[in-house]
Amino acid sequence: MAKGGILKETDPFAGKAKELKKELQKLVKEITDKDDYKAELANDAIKVLCSLQELYFKKKQVTFKDCDNVVPVEFKCPISGKIMSDPVVLASVKTYDRPFIQRWLNEGNRTCPLTEEVLSHIVLTPNQLVHDMISQWCNDHGLELPKPFRGNDEDVITDADHGHLKSLLAEMSSIPDLKNAARKLRLLTERRPSFRPLCGDHATIDRLLNPVSVAHAECDPDFKDDLITIFLNISICDDNKSVVAEDPRIIPLLIDALQNGNDATRSNAAAALSALSQLDKNRLIIGKAGALKPLIDLLKEGHPVGMKDAAAAILGLCFLGKNKKRLLHDGGVTVIMEMIMERKLVGDLLGILARLSDLPKAVEEMVELGAVPCLLSIIRESEDEVNKEMCLVILLEICMNDKTKSREEIKEDEDANSTLYELAENVTSRVGRTAKGILESLYIE
């Protein structure tokens, strides 16, 4: 039986696999024993290998079907109901499996399937934390995570489309036409994902950022929002991320929009930085340009949608060690702790704290700001296993880095509430094992 009793006790594929392996051994022996074997033997061996491969994939499909009823709900896509292989975060801060939410967006929907709120943008940000937790869960239960499905739902670009794009870019240099052209380009790159790769070359960017359009953006907030959103849309395309981030004009433009734009423009600028931060080299460029401080300001004082986008961008940037230190220097820990204590964007901000918790100075600041009782209270309140897991990860790092105050606080809480002890009783779960690790660390001098 598989770990945890998830798989069926009898394997319906075992007998067939055994037969195929015996047949393959026989064929391979005939091939290796003879210098002049018939080509049909090699073809037969290939057919048997293909049959084994097909059987393997069928077995994996049944395996996941059998365990569907015990997969943590946080690991299932709200659309498909199946375990996620490529979890991504929508603007509503809800996580979906990429192919299913991408199909939803490609059909023209601009609302979150779960919350029904209108989306400020359609950037899909990889949820690396959830992906890692799903991978660990699958490993713990003897399962292999299915490979991400890559469909091809995009439309075909015609010669007429190329001509239309060229015409719109030409109009961006004309004062009477540039507002209308920018709005059309914004809608085009939003509604037709296949247009985005066409806009990711230096020549197109030069035409978007010609002197006329840049000057007009300074005095027309609506035009500036359209321009920022165009860069957001084309940054979603993986092939464009390097070109966009490496252009010396674009990151400063996005930072300026963060600082001086209206609510919509600030939100879209943060979303663009979030999309670009998916590449390591872009994280360095964005961090060096000084984006973290205005992102922290947006997180602290922005519109709710903008706050979510800022949190996503900060989390993406904090996959780079230098940016974690910049965030700490710019007061990010204080802002994040205050918001978590007010129960704002808890899931998103816990992810950032988890990234920062390997920095001793960040841990010191967290402890001084009351992180230990705050995190323990979230564990007791929350039904979300992912949030509990992140709280425990942070607490474990705190225990390892702070040998005095934090340990006493945890011991006092355990005496009163037994928060960690109750979790540690379930040693088969990752949450339980992490809680057990924290309790054990309390008595290590």
UniProtKB/TrEMBL annotation:
<dbReference type="InterPro" id="IPR013083">
    <property type="entry name" value="Znf_RING/FYVE/PHD"/>
</dbReference>
<comment type="pathway">
    <text>Protein modification; protein ubiquitination.</text>
</comment>
<feature type="domain" description="U-box">
    <location>
        <begin position="70"/>
        <end position="144"/>
    </location>
</feature>
<dbReference type="InterPro" id="IPR016024">
    <property type="entry name" value="ARM-type_fold"/>
</dbReference>
<protein>
    <recommendedName>
        <fullName>RING-type E3 ubiquitin transferase</fullName>
        <ecNumber>2.3.2.27</ecNumber>
    </recommendedName>
</protein>
<dbReference type="InterPro" id="IPR045210">
    <property type="entry name" value="RING-Ubox_PUB"/>
</dbReference>
<dbReference type="Pfam" id="PF04564">
    <property type="entry name" value="U-box"/>
</dbReference>
<dbReference type="InterPro" id="IPR003613">
    <property type="entry name" value="Ubox_domain"/>
</dbReference>
<keyword id="KW-0808">Transferase</keyword>
<keyword id="KW-0677">Repeat</keyword>
<dbReference type="GO" id="GO:0016567">
    <property type="term" value="P:protein ubiquitination"/>
</dbReference>
<dbReference type="InterPro" id="IPR011989">
    <property type="entry name" value="ARM-like"/>
</dbReference>
<dbReference type="InterPro" id="IPR000225">
    <property type="entry name" value="Armadillo"/>
</dbReference>
<keyword id="KW-0833">Ubl conjugation pathway</keyword>
<dbReference type="GO" id="GO:0061630">
    <property type="term" value="F:ubiquitin protein ligase activity"/>
</dbReference>
